[in-house]
Design goal:
Order of helices and strands: HHHHHHHHH
Strand content: under 5%
CATH class of the largest domain: Mainly Alpha
CATH superfamily of the largest domain: Tetracycline Repressor, domain 2
Largest sheet: none
Number of domains: 2
Number of helices: 9
CATH architecture of the largest domain: Orthogonal Bundle
Structural class: mainly alpha
Helix content: over 70%
Amino acid sequence: MTVASKPDGRVARREGTREAIMAAATDLFAARGVTSTSIDDIAEAAGIAKGSIYYNFESKAGLVEAILARSSELLTEALAKAGDGRHGRELRAAVVTELLELLRAHPGGARVLVTELFRTERSWREAIANWRGLALAPLIADLRASGVPADRAQLRAAAIVGATLTAGLEWLVFDPQLELATVRQSVLESLGLD
C-alpha cells in the first residue's frame, strides 16, 4: 500500500526563494552587468541570506546559467508560436514580432542576454550558444529551404535576430512610450520584410 505524499511547503518556499533570487539578479545584472554585481548585492536585493544563493545555485555562474536557461525556455515557446505553419517572409515577420514581445515582457533578461551574447570567455558560454542556436534555427531552416546557401542563411538569420534585439532594447531603454506595433513595423521595414 502506498501513501500519497502531502505537498511539501519547503518545496514551494524553495521555489519562491529561487524566483526571488533570479528576479533580483536579473535586475542587477541588467543594470550593472554580471561582473560588477556581487552575491552580496543579489542577496540584499532579494532580501535573503547570502547562503541561500549558494544553496539554490552553487555559484554566481550557476545563477547566470539558470537565468539564461529560463530565457531559452521562453524563447522556445515564442518561436513555436511564430513558426506555427509559417514560412518565408511571414515566418521572419512572426519571429520579429515574438522576439519584440518577449523583450517587452522580460526586458531585464533581454539586457543580460544581449550583454553576454558575445563574451566568449564566460563559463556560461554554452547556455548563450544554446539560446543563439534556438533563436537562429527556424530562420536558418526556412532560408535554407528557399535555396539560400548555409553560410549566408546563418548570417541572414543572425541579422534578423540581432536587428530585432538591438531595436527592441533601443525601444525599451530610450523610447518606451512607443507602441509595439510601431517598433515592429520599423524593424520589418529596416529588414525589408514589410
